[in-house]
Amino acid sequence: MKKNLLLLTLITSHIFTATYKVVDEQEIPIPNVQIYNSIEGVTSDENGLFSLNSKCVSYNISHIGFQKVNFNPCDISDDISKKIVLKNLSIPNNEIKVLGDIGKSKLKDVLSNVEIFTQTNIINSGKNSFEDILKASTNVNYSGVSSRPRYFQIRGIGEYEQYVSQGGPSYYVASYIDNFNLSGLGLPIPLFDVENIEVFKGGQSFAFGQNALAGIIKVNLNKPKPIRETKIIVEEGSFNKKNVHFIYNQPILSFLGSKLYSDSKNEKINMRLSISKNKDDGFIYNTHTKEYSNKRDELISNIQWSWSKVLKSGNFLALNIASMHSSLDNNYDRWSYTNFDNMQTFETHSNFNGLPNNQSKDALFGLSNSIEASYKNQNNLTLTTIFTNNDIELNHYYDADWSNETQWIEDHPEPYNTYYSYSQIEDRKRNDNSFEFKLNKDFNFGKSTFGIFNKSLKEKDVANGFIFWTSGGWVSEFTSTYNIDYSSLYYQYIHYLKNNIRLILNHRIDNYENNYKNKVVTTNSSDYSVNTIDQPGEIFNEKFSSSRAGIRFNNFFISISSNHKPGGFNQNPYVENDYRKYLAEETTSLDIGYKENFERLSINLNIFHMYRKNMQIDIADQADAANPVTFYFYTANVKRGTNSGLDLLLNYRLNSKTNLFFNCGLLRSTKDRFTYPSPVLNPDPVIEKRDQARAPKHTITTGLESQITSKIFTRLEIIAKDKYYYFNNTNQMSKSYTILNFTSKYKISNNIDFGLSIKNATDEHYGIHGFYFSVSGYEPRKFHESPANPRDISVSLSLKL
């Protein structure tokens, strides 16, 4: 009997096991291709061959340099189809799932303008930091006010700075790493182990609620796979750059041995670990300290454990546990009272007196944890629960006079050469916990998604220095605390009509409670006496409803949506009570999209118009001309604003080896004439109608990439951005710029790659943030900019073990 069972097993194994071959478009076999899902994984051999049991399940087929595809053995009916051809393309496949979409729809079915940077695009273009993505994405901008980008603008909408007292944890652009919501904190992770980055342009409040009026940016990390994988990447370059990245992926059950687990074919535990160590000195030299003063010292690690099991009923269970640790211990010295001699010399003169260890600082230390569990049955019902926790600390310490005593005396005439040292220390701590439950159900006629979401957040900001100017002195210490409770119900329904027409409806209800209080310590300018005042707490309650309705047929969609951003408090304790609170902003958006893939040409066109009601704008005025630190921060509501434009992504296949791409964003923005209560300017200033701040009229990314031989790849990329206003209440503008990036890779062997990257090859000098104020106190206000990175050359070596 046992012999008969063994014989039957061998026969059925032979019958239901098939061999496939992966080749490129020149019919050349591709080795080391990963073919996997959560349960099973294999890699192709030197001849591009791999074998699978012919189960009707979906697999991912992935290899750097090629377009990722999905594959189901049951879709293959003949031997010819067993040859799988991968295309040399860095643009996403329309069949991939968009993980930031509320129902995880395929890209071809999404009812939003989403630009996806694939893993192939990220690696081949040398985009190893998030800043590179922000520069290349159309109608996307960022503010260079931190050691790593932290504040983003999409379609001209978004924050550009957040000093203490400049607002609470509420943002226009949401930023995620997997399930971790890091809005207002940046995306503190290198891009060496990223599956893709999704940039949703336009309001997403109906899906994400708070922090998504302008859009979201979501980084999707590679998940644990049932394939053993080890990879080391070493990088050296300009500014004494030295980076090391490590990836280790291990199927745990296979590692321990299937004898311990009799059901190991239907149950998998996988682990993935990624660690990155980044160090560089920066490009700005401090003439006082005699060293480069923008050093980066970063250690980021991410570990994920996944468990998945196919039950005897055919139902599926999955669990993913993730923990991300971030330590970005960076300096920040990117301002000069000479404005870097109009961006000609990258030298600063700060002495950092009054700062801990006499060093500037722009650091982030964080620990983020998440648990995601899902269940899917044979009736296409999927249940998902997600728990997350973030514990983040930001340190921002800076020399506010941008000078030192010797330099000041040399550069300023009597009687203005008396030097006063100004510095400020700002610490921010945020802790948040969230829970989400989601139900998805597929029907023959459509698909429904229902979810509940709850989040509690506490953020505490502490600043020491010259925070606010008062009539008899200054605020020397300011502490603010936000306690925010946030809950939501959301629903999406997709109805399938005839002729591939789909009707999509979204609705979300958000309840938002913001408890705010602060403590003020004042110092008398005559006798330096100190007085502490505990301000009474304030509560801000709001309830919002966001919706979207749209229709998609074949390659065309149109949608109308409503979005919101909560109101809040002006934190300056000396703002009049009538202006203490500002209203929520509400928008109505129209989006029209067209996507088509021809034999050689790929087109993705999106046209948009947003009407903004009670538009929120940030204002900063220097409160005391003799003090470079005391700013009057104020958020006002403007009655109306509009943001209109288009995004166009084109990719043309010149041949099977060479692709041309042209991505263009056009933007037109307006805001009404407005006035605001200024304690500095008399009478209150009136700001005439004009373009919005941080809204460049065009952003362009174009170039070509070519797989010259089977071993050599090159990519040339040109990025152009129009000038834009830095501020809402003054007229200083950035400089338009065009930069050239070049990358090349040489495949030494199947397991070793050498890379060359040149960013900003023409060494263009331009600004990425600005201030308009008087540093000295006796001179009129002047315009100062923080410079972008100059030419950056690096080489890398990638080794697979």
What are the defining features of this structure?
801 residues; mainly beta; Immunoglobulin-like; Maltoporin, Chain A; 22-stranded antiparallel β-barrel; 5-stranded mixed sheet
Give the SSE layout.
Elements: H1 2-15, E1 17-23, E2 34-36, E3 41-43, E4 49-53, E5 59-62, E6 69-71, E7 83-85, E8 113-118, H2 119-124, H3 130-136, E9 140-143, E10 151-154, E11 173-177, E12 180-181, E13 194-201, H4 205-208, E14 215-221, E15 229-237, E16 241-251, H5 252-256, E17 267-280, E18 285-286, E19 291-292, E20 296-310, E21 316-328, H6 339-343, E22 347-348, E23 361-376, E24 381-399, H7 405-411, E25 423-442, E26 446-470, E27 473-496, E28 501-524, E29 530-534, E30 538-553, E31 556-565, E32 568-569, E33 581-582, E34 585-597, E35 601-622, E36 631-653, E37 658-671, E38 674-675, E39 686-687, E40 698-707, E41 712-721, E42 737-747, E43 752-759, E44 767-773, E45 782-787, E46 792-800
Parallel strand pairs: 1-7, 11-14, 18-22
Antiparallel strand pairs: 1-4, 2-3, 2-5, 5-6, 8-13, 9-10, 11-12, 13-14, 15-16, 15-46, 16-17, 17-20, 18-19, 20-21, 21-23, 23-24, 24-25, 25-26, 26-27, 27-28, 28-29, 28-30, 30-31, 31-34, 32-33, 34-35, 35-36, 36-37, 37-40, 38-39, 40-41, 41-42, 42-43, 43-46, 44-45
- How many domains, as an integer? 2
CATH topology group of the largest domain? Maltoporin, Chain A
Low-confidence stretches: 5-15
- Described by the principal axes of the CA atoms, the overall outline is globular
Question: How many distinct helices?
Answer: 7
Whole-Å distance between the termini? Answer: 44 Å
For CATH, the homologous superfamily of the largest domain is named as: TonB-dependent receptor, beta-barrel domain
Could you describe the largest sheet, including whether it forms a barrel? Answer: 22 strands, antiparallel, barrel
Structural class: mainly beta
- CATH class descriptor name of the largest domain: Mainly Beta
Summarize model confidence as the mean pLDDT. 91
Radius of gyration: 28 Å
- Under the CATH scheme, which architecture of the largest domain would be assigned? Beta Barrel
Question: Percent helix among the residues?
Answer: under 10%
Our estimate of the beta-strand percent is over 45%
Q: What's the β-strand tally?
A: 46
